[in-house]
Amino acid sequence: MSEFDFDRAAEAIRDGELIVYPTETVYGLGADALDADAVEGVFAAKDRDHSKPVSMAVPDVETAAEYTTPTERERAFMREFLPGPVTVVLERTPAVPDILTAGRDRVGIRIPDHDGALELLGRTGPLTATSANVSGTGSVRDLATLDDRIRERAAVVLDGGTTPGGGSTVVDVAAGEIHRRGSAADAIEQWLSDN
Q: What tens digit of pLDDT does each residue of 137-163 get?
């Protein structure tokens, strides 16, 4: 991915359009996570039920804290496990639109451990962090398998080669609960019991 690719992708996000971008797990479908209309475009492209929230990707813990109200324990958890294949569920601020969280008061935060994704996030601000697939179909690790329905909706597709696959571990630190197990689940479980 070149500077030109990142510039095109950032411009598309500013224009309220969708992009496809690589992460350390699978390809993500990105839109401005703070723009309700752009987020609506993600739901439409994925044919996703509006009752299912979408996570938000940010470049670092400091940015996460601009849109959420993490406790000291949640901050310690993020410093330990992010960036990485982890989604941490935090109390959101009013800047985060209802459509992203399905009206809930908490939002899933991702900080991908992927240089290209972090470069992109540094240019765009918060992006939707959801897999670049139509709901009910498999996640995309290689752009050759990207569904035409997603490809046609995306203004820019960033090619990062084949991604490692897997999904992020979704954890609610405040509740001490893992909602979805991923590669770091055992270490997270240990941290939750020790802290």
A: 999 999 999 999 999 999 999 999 999
Residue 136 sits at φ, ψ, to 5 deg, of 90, -5
Structural domain count of the chain: 1
How far apart (Å, rounded) are the C-alpha atoms in residues 114 and 163?
Answer: 10
Is the peptide bond preceding residue 112 cis, with omega within 30 degrees of 0? no
Q: Backbone dihedral region of 17: left (phi > 0), alpha (psi from -120 to 50 degrees) or beta?
A: beta
Give the pair of three-digit tokens for residue 48: 């996703």
> pLDDT tens across 13-54, in order?
999 999 999 999 999 999 999 999 999 999 999 999 999 999
Q: Give the whole-angstrom CA distance, residue 33 versus residue 38.
A: 7
By three-state DSSP, how is residue 46 classified? helix
User: Which domain range does residue 152 map to?
Assistant: 3-194
Secondary structure (DSSP) of 86-155: EEEEEEBPTTS-HHHHTT-SEEEEE--S-HHHHHHHHHH-SEEEEESS-TTSPPPSSGGG--HHHHHHEE
Q: What is the CATH number of the domain that holds 97?
A: 3.90.870.10
| Cβ within 8 Å of residue 48, ≥6 positions away | 42, 54, 130, 135
Whether this model's pTM surpasses 0.70: yes
